């Protein structure tokens, strides 16, 4: 795969990942769950974005 396509796919993956995290934070913030459960759900959404960043960094290293 050409380098340009890898960069484009990585940028799109990061944009969608950050967008999904923002939507998740908004949904969790407006829910009636207890504070501890909100914290756990927010952590899961945030880790998804961090994992995407790790994969993108590893793909672009090569």
From TrEMBL:
<feature type="transmembrane region" description="Helical">
    <location>
        <begin position="35"/>
        <end position="57"/>
    </location>
</feature>
<keyword id="KW-0812">Transmembrane</keyword>
<keyword id="KW-0472">Membrane</keyword>
<feature type="transmembrane region" description="Helical">
    <location>
        <begin position="7"/>
        <end position="29"/>
    </location>
</feature>
<protein>
    <recommendedName>
        <fullName>TMhelix containing protein</fullName>
    </recommendedName>
</protein>
<keyword id="KW-1133">Transmembrane helix</keyword>
């Amino acid at each position: 795969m050409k380098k340009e396509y890898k960069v484009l796919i990585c940028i799109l993956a990061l944009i969608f990942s950050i967008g999904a995290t923002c939507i998740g934070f908004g949904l969790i913030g407006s829910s009636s769950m207890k504070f501890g459960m909100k914290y756990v759900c927010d952590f899961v959404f945030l880790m998804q974005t961090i994992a995407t960043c790790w994969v993108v960094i590893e793909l672009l290293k090569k």
